[in-house]
Amino acid sequence: MTTPPTKKPSRIQMRNRRLILDAALVVFSRDGYGGATLDSIATGAGLSKPNLLYYFDSKTAIYVTLLSQLLETWLDPLIELDPDGDPVEELLGYVRHKLDMSLELPDESKLFAGEMLQGAPRIMNHLQDELKPLFDRKCAIIQNWIDAGKLAPVDPPHLIFSIWAATQHYADFGAQVSVLLGGENPSVRAAAHLEQMFRKVLQPQTP
Amino acid sequence: MTTPPTKKPSRIQMRNRRLILDAALVVFSRDGYGGATLDSIATGAGLSKPNLLYYFDSKTAIYVTLLSQLLETWLDPLIELDPDGDPVEELLGYVRHKLDMSLELPDESKLFAGEMLQGAPRIMNHLQDELKPLFDRKCAIIQNWIDAGKLAPVDPPHLIFSIWAATQHYADFGAQVSVLLGGENPSVRAAAHLEQMFRKVLQPQTP
DNA sequence: CGTAAATTTTACCAATTGGTAAAGAGACGA
DNA sequence: TCGTCTCTTTACCAATTGGTAAAATTTACG
Fold first, then answer.
1. A166 contacts in chain B (CB < 8 Å)
2. Given A84, A123, B175, B203, which is the most exposed site by the fewest CB atoms within 10 A?
3. Contact predicate A164/B112, CB 8 Å
């Protein structure tokens, strides 16, 4: 269904699939799905174009594989939100983790953002099947924290949106950030700003 | 330099250039720069492909024209930040305005975001020449408000980043938002959430 | 070693791409 | 009514695209 025969992947398969996916990440995130070419990915991976298509059925297959794997990595920190932890610190930890990912893996963030921009046509089902249930579960946890008075009353889904938006901005709009900060590395002040901002938003006001 | 001869634009020119830019906005924002085709834009505009190229020199010329015009529209509300107004209300008004634009003109937001994702190769100069000076000016105003004790101490540039990110998220990640909210229209709750959030962040704590 | 399977290369292709040349059709003032 | 300038169409093209067929080569393994 996906690519080479159906067997256990050999060492060569593991290596080349990884080479291809690594190169594809760079190309797709830089040029967008439509602007990316198999030739460009092949060159990046050090393979010939027909050889690419020995490992993946099509350009789309590479792209979708990349996005699916990505979605998992990207969701991990959200999964770790612990209902039994301290609410404010759990959420601030999540913000921190998300910011770090954006700063360290900007290509991954951009690839995902590019797919979103185009209406997520190729991973809509993943969003429905994987992200949505997780999202609902975590919103419920946040709502419980609020009901228990351990968190200021916020709108859980929109809080999550704001966290995602504010953190990913440093990856997705990195070019703009860089220009507007005059090239200064944003990481330290961004972290301080986001921590301060979300602490104010989350801290319950009746201690 | 840009397109048809050098004269005052006739009525036909005005109309067709508008048709082309309107169609191009839809196509570029949906398919990205690389994925967009002149044929698709021409069809959308109801013109033939060679006729497009009578009005614009190239695909890139259409794209850049669109982005430049866009940048102005998008910057307008920031320009209106009034140093003599009430700081908190000025900024909350800006948030509100920015959110409205994202909800009502998502294609414009996506087009801009797409260019940013790719490192802004085609409007880097506009960012430098137009956005950067404006940005610095507005950061200074915010800093003055803070120094005057009329605003909680925030990091002005990063505050603006967070405002941009949180508002544009509803346009750029509209597909995701829609899935996660189960199709519910986000506008009312988004507005309430952002107002509440940024009010907390901006309100000085020593009244 | 030998051989069958896995991998890679070479040669190729139809479709699409951005863009051009030049002929033709309208508009419009003198 | 004529002639000129603006606009539009038709016909075309070289380059690139995603993808295939099949031969050639490597690798794994008994």
1. 161-162, 165-166
2. A84
3. no
